[in-house]
Write a structure and sequence with these properties.
Strand content: 15-25%
Cofactor: thiamine diphosphate
Shape: globular
Mean pLDDT: 95
InterPro entries: DHS-like_NAD/FAD-binding_dom, THDP-binding, Thiamin_PyroP_enz_cen_dom, Thiamin_PyroP_enz_TPP-bd_dom, TPP_enz, TPP_enzyme_TPP-bd
Protein name: Acetolactate synthase-1/2/3 large subunit
Number of domains: 3
CATH topology of the largest domain: Rossmann fold
Strand order of the largest sheet: 3-2-4-5-7-6
Number of strands: 18
CATH class of the largest domain: Alpha Beta
Radius of gyration: 24 Å
GO molecular function, one term: flavin adenine dinucleotide binding
Structural class: alpha/beta
Largest sheet: 6 strands, parallel
CATH superfamily of the largest domain: Thiamin diphosphate (ThDP)-binding fold, Pyr/PP domains
Distance between the termini: 54 Å
GO biological process, one term: isoleucine biosynthetic process
Length: 540
């Protein structure tokens, strides 16, 4: 039976949001969106507010990523929306189902120069799946339902609605559209069969699984396919932890050996972008498994590229009944390389050097992070080490900016993660450069009693730029920060706590204090500025 809803624009929007499982709002206060606050306040719908709009969108994205359902950010008109565009763009690259609702200057005065009057849609349309101005209160439930349906339909992504002042403040009534589950996209069975045969018959196959495996609830299907076909699995993004580190087919440190030796590389649920050599794996054949046809790579020609619901595709791989090659020797070869790399990493993570090497920070973190801790990477050089040394034990526990590489996600992601998991450890790994983007939002965490641990790798430089620039030109510019800056004092001034660590031996006790503090706590680690994460000279 159709439900009839009535009220002002905020109440009509809230009814549709709740029907889709949205349970909280992230925002920075603005008069254009007061009715949305009013509806939330009077209906016990939690509101979390921030000090910069980008953090509101990043918080909504963290909820969308972790919970695999829509996250909501509400931004006031004009600069409120433009301040959120980096967050929208990150969500677009990360396929995160985020809804941004914006205020908008009144339509009846459009062109007269109202406060913060601008047309947002041309700015947000390129980085959203759906962008619409809703001119009537009566039309709000329909528009919210359409937007959220688009956000949740693979390939998932952010959507945007804005409401002229008179529309959101007006009273209206409308039927609440029913919430229809998104139907799974059926893949072409011939493409799936060709892919399965290619993997099963390969001598040295490798699987690389990415964020869409988690977003599409295909983790169990991935494990079943790997175990059935006996294929080694590497992961990136939120795919990390899809196979626990102790699984005999889970690999993390032998990727270079694997990709150099593979004859078939199977990339599942992640694009063939710069993180994966743009899909160029030498003579290896490429199987690119995507959740929607539009995600097929256009710059390379895979041997086969099944598109559709990843659970269906991976389950079909697991059930493949044709001829199979024996991959045992290949798996054993990679395990030997993996074990050797672990020995090297263990030595680096135990290094007693002062200044502290970044690897030692992660060695100490591995001792204190729980298996279900949510770890957030917000930085360049320092966070690269996290990708190398931390191995998530469970899927859905790793958040990073993704391929867009936007700094400043840290405090917003931390807020969304803490709201999602009030009883877990939340640890933000932040470079000192990244700290300049969002650290003020520690105040938002303190004020709303959302404790997190922040570990800053403080080397006093923009590490990803300083070292390559010196290598290229013999000098560097615009790459230095204040050495040994007391970011912990900033957090203390905002109501949290923290300390600076200069000696490797002091790291463990400092981290223990941080996780026991019960308030936002920043461990400011003075790291060696000469220690640069090794990279290719290709800056693309």
């Amino acid at each position: 039976m159709t439900e009839r809803v009535e009220g002002h624009g905020g109440e009509l929007a809230l009814a549709a949001l709740r029907a889709h499982g949205v349970r909280e709002m992230f925002t920075l206060s603005g008069g254009h969106v007061f009715p949305l606050y009013d509806a939330a306040h009077r209906n016990d719908f939690p509101i979390y507010d921030v000090r910069h709009e980008q953090s509101a969108v990043f918080a909504a994205e963290a909820v969308a990523k972790l919970q695999r359902r829509p996250g909501l950010a509400v931004l006031t008109a004009g600069p409120g929306v433009t301040n959120g565009i980096s967050g929208l763009t990150s969500a677009y690259f990360n396929a995160s189902p985020v809804l941004v609702m914006g205020g908008r200057a009144p339509q009846f005065r459009w062109g007269s120069g109202s406060l913060q009057e601008m047309d947002h849609l041309p700015l947000v349309a390129p980085v959203t799946k759906h962008a619409e101005t809703v001119f009537s209160a009566d039309d709000i439930p329909r528009a919210v339902t359409a937007a959220l349906t688009a956000a949740l339909t693979p390939h998932r992504g952010p959507v945007f609605l804005d409401f002229p002042l008179e529309a959101v403040f007006s009273v209206g009534d409308a039927d609440l559209p029913p919430v229809a589950p998104v139907a799974p996209l059926e893949p072409d069975p011939d493409e799936v069969a060709r892919a399965a045969a290619l993997i099963a018959g390969a001598s040295r196959p490798v699987v690389i699984a990415g964020s869409d495996v988690y977003a599409g609830a295909a983790v169990d299907a991935l494990r079943a396919a790997a175990e059935s076909l006996q294929v080694p699995v590497f992961t990136n993004g939120m795919g990390r932890g899809a196979l626990p580190p102790e699984h005999p087919l889970a690999f993390a440190k032998a990727r270079r050996v694997a990709l150099r030796g593979a004859d078939v590389v199977v990339v599942v649920g992640t694009p063939l972008d710069f993180r994966l050599s743009f899909g160029d794996f030498g003579d290896a054949k490429v199987v690119h498994v995507v959740d929607a046809p539009g995600q097929r790579a256009g710059h390379v020609q895979p041997a086969v590229s099944p598109a559709g619901d990843l659970r269906l595709i991976l389950t079909a791989f697991a059930e493949y009944g044709g001829d199979r090659a024996d991959h045992a020797d290949w798996v054993a070869e990679l395990r030997t390389a993996e074990d050797a790399a672990k020995v090297r990493d263990a030595a680096e993570m135990a290094a007693e050097t002062d200044p502290i090497r970044p690897a030692r920070v992660y060695g100490e973190l591995r001792r204190v992070l729980a298996a279900d801790a949510i770890t957030i990477g917000d930085g360049g050089d320092f966070v690269s080490y996290a990708g190398k040394y931390l191995e998530p034990a469970q899927p859905g526990t790793w958040l990073d900016p993704g391929p867009y590489g936007c700094l400043g996600t840290g405090m917003g992601y931390a807020m969304g993660a803490r709201v999602t998991h009030p009883d877990r450890q939340i640890c933000v790994l932040m470079g000192d450069g990244a700290a300049g983007f969002s650290l003020m939002d520690v105040e938002s965490l303190v004020r709303q009693k959302l404790p997190v641990v922040i570990v800053v790798g403080n080397n006093g430089i923009w590490g990803l730029e300083k070292h390559p620039m010196r290598a290229m030109y013999g000098y560097d510019v615009a790459a230095d920060l204040q050495p040994e800056l007391r970011y912990d004092k900033v957090v203390e001034a905002l109501g949290g706590a923290g300390e600076t660590v200069a000696k490797a031996a002091d790291l463990g006790p400092a981290l223990a204090r941080a996780f026991d503090a019960g308030v936002p706590y920043l461990v400011n680690v003075l790291t060696d500025p000469t220690d640069a994460y090794p990279r290719s000279s290709n800056l693309a």
